[in-house]
Design brief:
Chain C: It is found in: Mitochondrion. The complex is a heterotrimer of chains A (200), B (415) and C (137). Chain B is mainly α and 415 residues long. Chain B has 12 helices and 4 strands; from the N terminus they run H-H-H-H-H-H-H-H-H-H-E-H-E-E-E-H. In chain C, strands 3-2-4-5 form a 4-stranded mixed β-sheet, covered by helices on one side. Classes of the chains: A mainly alpha (200), B mainly alpha (415), C alpha+beta (137).
Chain lengths: 200, 415, 137
């Protein structure tokens, strides 16, 4: 308790590692810091707020202190509970409310907007073009032409067997130049990727 | 009480003094017709230890049935069950109900490969026990985890009542195997004809004659729904039952002793034995005793169902699930990260649907963390369990509360 | 097929549902002539009957072993066996040895450092630095 007060009273110059730039003043201050305070005193963290005796509620109350571990798979998320389950009313999802969800960055830089602009005739056109000359009309080119994603082209039509055979030979030619190390690294990567689904 | 009768405690005592002439005579020359007793007197443990004190029935010379010695029989005679210390010890070790006689337990230990006669082997008991086991296990699984996908239910059924588990259980019960089955063997040993070492089991017996139509078409796609209809409870192809005319009905063993049944592995024989014990408990002690036995021996074993999932494309499945249940589309967001530009970064990614967090996962790349978060969310969906679980067989008890319908889910995500 | 099941086997928890006594057989070896077997012979005559009645789940074998010290051997479900030499012991001491063998699990003796071991998952999970209330120092 005493340390937290001391920390709060300390000016921001006392924490030089938090400052973005290094000025000569802070450099001197950093030299003057004792080891004990840096390594021990600062790491004494005040216990969770729910642990202390709360003054406002004199009645019995629940201390909510979620474990610092990955959530168990047996804890069904609140959204997945059926509407008549008792746990819906019992559990107030305090863990997610502590997170500011809107401020969290997304995994992908830009999420493409789904347009749904292609018609049935366009899909027929895609199929015809791909069947006519698979070497020219690749998935990428068709996607550029119709302003959609290559994934949609793959969903709409399939490559001809000749094109598949050519691609297979190209892949074999590339893979034949791999050495043992690269081949093993690629295989290991595939195995690691499979282990994601098993949650290992 | 001055002279101690040592064979009271041991049927297989080794000293020459114990083996008196009459006992030797009784061991080797067993007389009488071969029939399975249908009315067995109930077992009393007080008399159990003084089994050898009972006088053997005098051999009836004028019996209308043919006489056999023990060596001619494929499995031990029924009278031998009362003399086996191993069998009595096994009976007591499993705390089997006293209404289950030792003779039935001895019959449970005789596999079809040892004695092809259906009146003396455990085939009928094991069929009954298998049905009971799978019934209890499946109702427990479906009621406890109503949203489990079928493939996981098959795997969990295999874990609860599959042959590997039953084999492990019979080993943990202390059941020993006889080297070669025969009439002179101690009835407390599991008797089956062993597969010769070095036999390739898959080559030796290709699976033909299954219940599935077009079984020769190996390239055809087998849907999981079709395996509900055609395959067994573990999702494996099942051999079709032979027509009833083929069941052998010869009570008497053939004189040359040639057994036409194929040899089996120890796993198959032990699994059949454990199933037969469950079936025998059901027949002799009733439904409640069988269910209690299942709960104590099978359900009490540890199984982590959350480790039985293998997702191939979890993010896609989660998107389909949210679309099916009319939730907002799942969005992956970075909760925290460390060392992005270093050699070993860690990202913690959560999958959110609207403002609700569905799951979170940590990984060394953003794609891995997102995939793991989707797996966690899908497991959260599939592993939902109602608070009070009641299985349908609870209604069989007297004075049971009226049945309330259990939670039934739409089923797994179909992509 | 979106999700596949991974087959596994349930692991036993002896005593959670049913309890299986791990000692499955006790062998008693004695000598009629030697003086070191005097206590053993007395035990076999007067106490073994009651012991066998109380513990029907143990198979008991008695056999002489002339010109040797008396021995009790316990055979266990895990395949191991433990032998105790009971030469010159009184019947009460032999009874204690028999009880020791009966209650044994058959495993090798090892020092237990933790009072409780479990195969269940911890209730609060495994600590991870990336979860829980993240505090900035």
């Amino acid at each position: 308790m005493a340390t937290s007060i001391a920390v709060s009273k300390r000016p921001i110059l006392g924490l030089p590692f938090l400052l973005p730039c290094c000025e000569p003043v802070t450099l001197q201050l950093r030299r003057a810091q004792s080891t004990y305070r840096r390594t021990k005193q600062r790491l004494r963290i005040k216990p969770d707020a729910s642990f202390g005796s709360s003054t406002d509620s004199t009645q019995a109350h629940i201390i909510y202190n979620p474990p610092s571990s990955a959530p168990s798979a047996y804890h069904t998320p609140l959204k997945f509970l059926p509407p008549n389950d008792v746990r819906r009313t019992l559990r107030t999802d305090t863990s997610s409310s502590s997170l500011n969800i809107d401020a969290l960055p997304s995994v992908f830089k830009s999420v493409p907007e789904k347009k749904y602009h292609l018609t049935r005739e366009d899909v027929e056109e895609i199929r015809k073009l791909r069947a006519s000359d698979p070497l020219v009309w690749s998935r990428w080119k068709l996607a550029q032409r119709f302003n959609c994603s290559p994934l949609f082209i793959a969903q709409a039509c399939e490559a001809s067997p000749q094109k598949k055979e050519i691609q297979r030979q190209v892949l074999e030619a590339v893979q034949s130049r791999w050495g043992a190390k690269r081949r093993m690294a690629r295989e290991d990567r595939e195995l690691r990727k499979e282990s994601w689904g098993r949650d290992e | 009480m001055k002279r101690l009768q040592l064979q009271r405690w041991s049927s297989s005592a080794l000293s020459s003094r114990v083996r008196t002439g009459s006992r030797l005579h009784r061991q080797i020359y067993y007389s009488g017709a071969r029939f399975q007793s249908t009315t067995s007197n109930s077992l009393q443990f007080e008399d159990d230890q003084s089994l050898a004190g009972q006088q053997p029935t005098p051999p009836s010379t004028n019996s209308p049935f043919p006489q056999f010695t023990k060596h001619q029989l494929p499995s031990p005679p029924i009278q031998a069950a009362r003399e086996s210390a191993k069998l009595a010890a096994l009976h007591a070790r499993l705390y089997l109900p006293s209404r289950l006689p030792l003779e039935t337990l001895a019959r449970c230990l005789v596999d079809t490969s040892a004695d092809p006669n259906f009146q003396f082997n455990n085939n009928s008991l094991s069929v009954l026990g298998h049905d009971l086991l799978t019934n209890y296990a499946s109702e427990h699984l479906v009621c406890t985890y109503p949203r489990l996908p079928l493939t996981v239910i098959f795997a969990a059924m295999y874990a609860y009542a599959g042959p590997k588990t039953l084999h492990a259980m019979s080993r943990e019960w202390g059941v020993e195997h006889a080297a070669v089955p025969g009439g002179e063997v101690d009835p407390g040993l599991l008797q089956f004809k062993r597969v010769a070492p070095g036999t390739n089991l898959k080559e030796a017996r290709p699976l033909v004659g299954t219940t599935r139509p077009n079984e020769d078409q190996t390239t055809w796609r087998k849907s999981i729904t079709s395996s509900v209809v055609y395959d067994n409870v573990f999702g494996d192809p099942e051999l079709a039952a032979p027509p009833p005319a083929e069941l052998s009905d010869n009570v008497y063993p053939t004189n040359d002793g040639i057994n036409s049944e194929p040899p089996v592995t120890a796993e198959v024989a032990s699994a059949n034995f454990v199933r037969a014990v469950v079936g025998a408990i059901y027949l002799h002690a009733g439904r409640q005793a069988a269910k209690r036995f299942f709960e104590q021996h099978f359900l009490s074993r540890q199984l982590d169902i959350s480790k039985m999932f293998n997702f191939s494309q979890p993010a896609r499945d989660l998107a389909r699930l949210c679309a099916r249940e009319n939730y907002e589309a799942p969005v992956a967001k970075i909760i925290s990260e460390t060392g992005r530009r270093s050699r070993s970064p860690v990202f913690v990614v959560g999958v959110f649907s609207g403002r609700d967090k569905l799951g979170e996962g940590a990984g060394a790349s953003l794609v891995e963390a997102r995939s793991r978060a989707a797996v966690a969310a899908l497991k959260g969906w599939y592993l939902y369990s109602p608070l009070e679980v009641r299985v349908p067989s609870a209604m069989e008890e007297d004075g049971a509360a009226p049945w309330k319908p259990v939670y039934v889910d739409l089923g797994e995500v179909i992509v | 097929m979106p999700v596949q099941g991974i087959r596994s086997v349930t692991s036993a928890r002896n005593g959670v549902g049913a309890f299986i006594l791990q000692c499955k057989r006790l062998d008693f070896h004695y000598c009629d002539w030697a003086g070191s077997s005097r206590g053993m012979v007395s035990f076999l005559k007067h106490q073994l009957n009651a012991f066998a009645k109380q513990n029907p789940q143990i198979e008991i074998r008695v056999s002489p072993r002339p010109h040797k010290h008396p021995v009790i051997k316990g055979h266990y479900i895990n395949g191991r066996e433990k032998a105790v030499c009971v030469r010159n012991l009184e019947p009460e001491q032999i009874f204690q040895k028999v009880n020791l063998l009966k209650q044994n699990s058959g495993e090798k003796n090892k020092r237990t450092k933790k009072p409780v071991t479990s195969i269940n998952d911890s209730v609060r999970g495994i600590w991870s630095p990336y979860h829980g209330g993240l505090k900035s120092v």
